[in-house]
Amino acid sequence: MSELKPAADLANLRNGLHGESEAYAEARTALLTEEIEARRKLTRLARLRQALPPGPVVEKDYRFKDANGEEVGLVDLFGEHDTLVTYFWMYGPERERPCPMCTNFLGGANGNAADVKQRAAFKILGRSPVERQKAFALERGWRDLDFVQTVGDDFALDHGGLDPEKGWEFPAYTVFRKEAGGTVRYFYAAEMPAEAADPGQDPRGAVDFAPLWNILDTTPEGRGTDWHPKLTY
After folding, report:
1. Domain 63-189, CATH 3.40.30.10 — does that match?
2. Which residues neighbour 47 within 8 Å (Cβ) at sequence distance 6 or greater?
């Protein structure tokens, strides 16, 4: 890999905005330096993920029901791909409506799902029947997400999607890899605990997948501290 140019040198190449003050130009150039460094950090994170050694073999026979109502195993969710991306969302049978935060994430995921599925299988897992999940997807106008029902609660319990004592649900993002012969291994799981949140921040992992937060982070008001997405406005 060729040696990277200093971020500050690259930031000084910015064209600038018409009519900007000297103070704005100086602050914006300093910010651009940090943005370039952040971009490079995200690139390093991606490379570190992709360089992970083989993860543990999935030993348990997790069962699911697909859109046709057929019971299938985890390996069946891969389809023609060797990589499977799963998102367990908070829409169990006891919930009248799904989690607004999960809903927001899935709205953005739906917009990219057709593209993602060119390179990996992408399944949305929920404890509710597929028909119930799809009915909500129809309400939201989601067309490209593939919903699957978990059979029993083993998958949710083993992947941090369900508190066994309180019955609370939590989202879970997990990526699996299929080897020749059908062996399935874990590749990556979003494992940042809620306790890792910095003071004054909601629990969140790195990097944020939801476009909502990435867009709001470019605004003067930011994400806000007393606001979250809702199902209706």
Report:
1. yes
2. none
